[in-house]
Protein backbone atom coordinates (compact mmCIF):
# COMPACT_ATOMS: atom_id res chain seq x y z
CA UNK A 1 0.00 0.00 0.00
CA UNK A 2 2.81 2.41 0.87
CA UNK A 3 4.58 1.56 -2.39
CA UNK A 4 1.39 2.34 -4.36
CA UNK A 5 0.97 5.73 -2.62
CA UNK A 6 4.61 6.71 -3.09
CA UNK A 7 4.48 5.66 -6.74
CA UNK A 8 1.33 7.74 -7.29
CA UNK A 9 3.01 10.79 -5.69
CA UNK A 10 6.05 10.18 -7.88
CA UNK A 11 3.90 10.07 -11.04
CA UNK A 12 2.01 13.24 -10.10
CA UNK A 13 5.34 14.96 -9.51
CA UNK A 14 6.60 13.98 -12.96
CA UNK A 15 3.39 15.07 -14.68
CA UNK A 16 3.74 18.42 -12.94
CA UNK A 17 7.38 18.67 -14.04
CA UNK A 18 6.38 17.89 -17.61
CA UNK A 19 3.94 20.79 -17.76
CA UNK A 20 6.29 23.22 -16.00
CA UNK A 21 9.27 22.41 -18.19
CA UNK A 22 7.14 22.34 -21.31
CA UNK A 23 5.99 25.92 -20.81
CA UNK A 24 9.18 27.43 -19.36
CA UNK A 25 12.09 25.49 -20.89
CA UNK A 26 13.28 23.94 -24.16
CA UNK A 27 11.64 20.85 -25.55
CA UNK A 28 14.43 18.44 -24.70
CA UNK A 29 13.83 18.83 -20.94
CA UNK A 30 10.17 17.87 -21.39
CA UNK A 31 11.27 14.89 -23.45
CA UNK A 32 13.82 13.84 -20.83
CA UNK A 33 11.26 13.87 -18.01
CA UNK A 34 8.75 11.98 -20.12
CA UNK A 35 11.34 9.28 -20.72
CA UNK A 36 11.92 9.02 -16.98
CA UNK A 37 8.18 8.68 -16.49
CA UNK A 38 8.01 6.03 -19.21
CA UNK A 39 10.81 4.10 -17.51
CA UNK A 40 8.94 4.27 -14.22
CA UNK A 41 5.66 3.05 -15.70
CA UNK A 42 6.86 0.16 -17.82
CA UNK A 43 10.58 -0.38 -17.22
CA UNK A 44 10.13 -3.52 -15.16
CA UNK A 45 7.38 -5.05 -17.30
CA UNK A 46 8.88 -4.60 -20.77
CA UNK A 47 12.07 -5.86 -22.32
CA UNK A 48 14.80 -3.38 -23.09
CA UNK A 49 14.15 -3.61 -26.82
CA UNK A 50 10.43 -2.83 -26.59
CA UNK A 51 11.18 0.01 -24.16
CA UNK A 52 13.73 1.44 -26.60
CA UNK A 53 11.21 1.18 -29.45
CA UNK A 54 8.60 3.01 -27.40
CA UNK A 55 11.14 5.75 -26.66
CA UNK A 56 11.97 6.13 -30.35
CA UNK A 57 8.30 6.16 -31.31
CA UNK A 58 7.52 8.84 -28.76
CA UNK A 59 10.56 10.85 -29.88
CA UNK A 60 9.28 11.04 -33.47
CA UNK A 61 5.68 11.69 -32.45
CA UNK A 62 6.73 14.42 -30.05
CA UNK A 63 8.74 16.33 -32.63
CA UNK A 64 6.02 15.93 -35.25
CA UNK A 65 3.37 17.37 -32.95
CA UNK A 66 5.40 20.11 -31.26
What does this entry look like structurally?
By secondary structure, the protein is an all-alpha fold. It has one domain. The protein contains 3 helices and no strands. Helix 1 runs antiparallel to helix 2 and helix 2 (27-42) packs antiparallel against helix 3 (48-65). It is flat, with a radius of gyration of 13 Å. The termini are far apart.
Shape type: flat
Instruction: Outline the biggest β-sheet.
Output: none
Low-confidence stretches: none
Q: Which radius of gyration do the C-alpha atoms yield?
A: 13 Å
Mean pLDDT: 66
Keywords: Membrane, Transmembrane, Transmembrane helix
Transmembrane segments: 12-37, 49-65
In terms of topology, how is this protein built?
Elements lengths: L1 H23 L2 H16 L5 H18 L1
Helix pairs in contact: 1-2, 2-3
Keywords: Membrane, Transmembrane, Transmembrane helix
Brief synopsis:
The chain crosses the membrane at residues 12-37, 49-65. By secondary structure, the protein is an all-alpha fold.
What are the salient characteristics of this protein?
66 residues, mainly alpha, 0% strand, flat
Amino acid sequence: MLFWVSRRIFLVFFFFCNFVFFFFSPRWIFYFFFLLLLNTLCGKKQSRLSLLLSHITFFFLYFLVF
